[in-house]
Design brief:
15 helices, binds zinc ion, 501 residues, Leucine Aminopeptidase, subunit E, domain 1, alpha/beta, binds manganese (II) ion, 20 strands, 2 domains, six-stranded mixed beta sheet, Aminopeptidase, 35% helix, binds ligand BES, nine-stranded mixed beta sheet
Length: 501
Amino acid sequence: MQLRVVVDQPWDVAADVLAVPFAGDLRLEGPLAEIDKRADGELAALYALGELKAERYGTAMAAGGQLRAGRLLAMSAGDAAGVSRQVVLRIGSAIERRLAGRSVRTLAIWLGDLGHLIDGGEEAAAELLARGVVEGEFEPATIYRPDYKNAPPALDELILVAPGADRAALTKAAERGVIVGEGANLARRLDNRAANDVSPEVLAGEARAIAERHGLFIDVIEPARAAELGMGMFLAVGSGSDNPPRMIVLRSGEEGASDAAGRRLAIVGKGVCFDSGGISIKPAAQMEEMKMDKTGACTVIAAIATVARLAPGTPMLAIAPTVENMPGPHSARPGDIVKAMNGKTVDIVNTDAEGRLILGDAMCYAEKLGATHLVDIATLTGAVARALGDQMTGAFGSPQTWYDTVAAAGERAGERYWQLPFIDEYRKDLDSWYADFTNTGSADGGLVKSALFLREFATVPWVHLDIAGTGYFRKKTAYAPAGATGVAHATLVELALSGAK
Ligand code: BES
Ligand code: MN
Ligand code: ZN
């Protein structure tokens, strides 16, 4: 897709479709009045009819009339006060998805008021719209059906229309948006793939190809070496499957180097290619969704690749402990006691609480490699989805300054997080008869307890993002299909780039 920023008036831009966002009630003043006039009053007529509604992502398509574009697509941004960076991002996606199955080669989007409604102004709007369009192009139905007909159109050209703007600055911002969007789509394309297609070794192979493409260092740790390193929790989870586990380690920058913020950042992503629950097997209902339990791994692999495109050589690590959690004669059993890489003993009372086991060893390994700051990302608990649903990621962190740094990156990325507390009183619920602790307590407060468990494996500033609710959508929306959302990819990229030279 070619990207072009033009500073002409929207009615002077030639394209198959000109998209026109508007906030609040449709008021035909200024440029919108001129657009409506040239479209023979179609906007006003569709609005009066109720075909075009002033509710967020509401749309209507009209003939272009005297506009140079063939068609006019109006889209509501909803009430102006509610227009956030995330809404601008989603407007880009919703415009692209509204055109699914249509023959559109060139799409122009007029920025309208969007730049005035968010921090960062028109540059931010250009970046977010471009990223949104690219993310909107993603269609999971094409992964196994390349001839699928109703995908959002593969555009030849996206034209952002910002009369009077700084063309060079907007172009740069929009190009960044395209790259971030492509990275999210890379994560989503891996993430949506089925467990009979993507085993730990296949995911490691994908990571190798990505590393080669972007000049990243890669190390894939196989079981024998994991045993030497003392990764007893990781190996216990991986032992139940014929597809052996892989600890995928990617690095950009020189070994041991700090970034411009003085950090050695490691992002750690849960890579459970399928989570049956193991011996503590899950009920059948929706078990098929557990191929998405590798979302965190796909996200960190894509995020380090995106950073490599935007700021090559930025020091950082991405670590993805990758396993299949399966029942079988070699599986860990409830009550098995294993030793973690940091020497702590763990009583695996529930084999379905596997994510925290593999993450704990991966976090220890990140620190062994010199990480000074950690962020882990995982589809860790059903509890976070019950608490916050699919729109807000649950997050924990300590110390607060590091949490705030990650949250600020999330803000810039247009993603939403809700900070949850470590409640120290619940730690004793993880007490074991034999070991230092168990991997689950009673269900009450299970979300907090999952973070208390992980905290046992961090000795440096650390943030935990639980994306079990936000990592994939069960139903499509105006701005995204069902399936992997790519959530938090942009946050991790923003965070790493805050340490770029
Ligand atoms: N992968 C699941 C969490 C999950 C649930 C992700 C629903 C996406 C949607 C995780 O491994 C798990 O099984 N968690 C258990 C923990 C429990 C056994 C303490 C859960 O949430 O029920
Ligand atoms: Mn599980
Ligand atoms: Zn899981």
